[in-house]
Each structure stands twice: as C-alpha cells, then as structure tokens.
Amino acid sequence: MTLSTHDGVKVYTPVSLKLYDWWVLNISNSYAWHCDTNKYLIPHFKNHLGERHMDIGVGTGFYLKKSLNYIKEISLTDLNLHSLEHTKKYIPDDKLINCLQHDVFQPFSNKLNESYNSISLFYLLHCLPGTMDDKKKAIENISYLLTEKGVLYGTTILGQGVKHNFFGKKLMSIYNKKGIFCNYSDSVDSLEEMLSYLFHDISIHVQGTVALFTAKNKK
C-alpha cells in the first residue's frame, strides 16, 4: 500500500494559515473536540519539551511561539512549505537549527539519528493516511531521531471510542472526505498498540475526543 500524505497538508495555504489558530485552536478545539487549547494542549506541549526539540507538523508554529523560553534548539519538519515558511518567521535564528520539508513516511537522514531530546506531533497523526498500523511506519522513522532518553509526545483526534457531538461529526465527515483527516478507525487502543510496538513507556489521556500521548524508552 502506497500512502500519500499530500491530501493531509494541501489545505495549509498562506490564506488558511492566517485563519488556522482562530478556527482550529479556538473554535474547533472548544466546540467540536472539547479539548481546550489553553487548559490542556499548551501545558502538554510545554511539559515534555527538551532543550533540543523537533516539532513535526508545525501548522502555524503556535505552540512553539508559546514555548520559546523553554527551548535552546529547535528543528521544524513539515511536508507543507507554506507551514514551514510561516512558522520559521517566529523562531529566532540562534534557536533554529533545521527546517526540513519532509514526508514522515520516508526515512530521515541518518545524520539526524539520536539528535533530539523531544519530538512533538500535535494534530499530525489524524492527518496521516491509513490505519494506526499503517501510521506506525511514520512513527518508526521518527523514533530514530530521539536520544536514548528522548520523549515522543503529541495529540490526535480520535474517530472511535469517543463521543463526537453534532459539530464534531460534521467536521469529521468533511475532513475525512477531503482527505484532510484519516482517523475514522483511530482509537485509544489502536494508538496504544502502535506506540507500544516502538516504546516501552506509554501514557495516553483522553480529553473530549482528543488523545494526549507520550512515549518514552524506545525499543
């Protein structure tokens, strides 16, 4: 099976990025996914940051902008060049060490192996194509970048095992039909199984329809 990540990133244009924080992090998080950005997502992002950090699926760089004082070195990774250019503007030159346009289903350069204390995947997994088992390949590629004690963490909107309200169901339907999301079969169990294949220590907390996860001690 050939997995294409382009449908999940093509929505991020210079125009849509100007509306992203308002629509996704304010309206959608509060009223569709019931996972408040300020109460849950920002603390989750900050709590697991290492001094040398990579953010994958950068969006607008919202979480990084809130956390610059906590990070010494930052790498940005995204398939969408618009997102990278948008986010890069907010990162001081002395902190930004890499800005990579990369498909996570493809291996990273070996020179990046074991380079990062922390890697964040916020709202990335539900945009990746396929089932959680398919997405495991992307997480495996990412795991090589972590140091021995490094932590992989993030958030993802679930499609199974959670109760979506009317607004959430409508967004899920639209986004999955357009290929922006691919998460109808994503559940806590499938997320845990996928992460446990690659890491010894897994933690998952569900808030609303969003799973906040951490994975440490890679296998």
A few lines on this structure:
Keywords: Methyltransferase, Transferase. With 219 residues, the protein is an alpha/beta fold.
The 3D shape can be described as globular
CATH superfamily: Vaccinia Virus protein VP39
Topology pattern, helix = H, strand = E: HHHEHEHEEHEHHEE
Q: Give the number of DSSP strands.
A: 7
Beta-strand level of the residues, as a percent range?
A: 15-25%
CATH architecture label = 3-Layer(aba) Sandwich
Helix content: 25-40%
| Overall pLDDT | 93
What does the oligomeric state look like here? single chain
Low-confidence stretches: none
Protein name: Class I SAM-dependent methyltransferase
GO molecular function: methyltransferase activity
Organism: Proteus genomosp. 6
Pfam family, one: Methyltransf_12
Any chance you could write out the topology, listing elements then pairs?
Blueprint: H1 6-9, H2 14-32, H3 37-47, E1 52-56, H4 62-65, E2 73-78, H5 81-88, E3 96-101, E4 116-122, H6 132-143, E5 146-157, H7 166-178, H8 188-196, E6 199-207, E7 210-218
Parallel strand pairs: 1-2, 1-4, 2-3, 4-5
Antiparallel strand pairs: 5-7, 6-7
Helix pairs in contact: 6-8
Overview features:
219 residues; Rossmann fold; 8 helices; 37% helix
Description:
This protein is of the alpha/beta class and 219 residues long. It has helices at 6-9, 14-32, 37-47, 62-65, 81-88, 132-143, 166-178, 188-196, and strands at residues 52-56, 73-78, 96-101, 116-122, 146-157, 199-207, 210-218. The protein has one domain (6-218): 3-Layer(aba) Sandwich (Rossmann fold), CATH 3.40.50.150. Helices cover 37% and strands 25% of the residues. A seven-stranded mixed sheet has the order 3-2-1-4-5-7-6, with helices on both faces. The chain is globular and about 45 Å long.
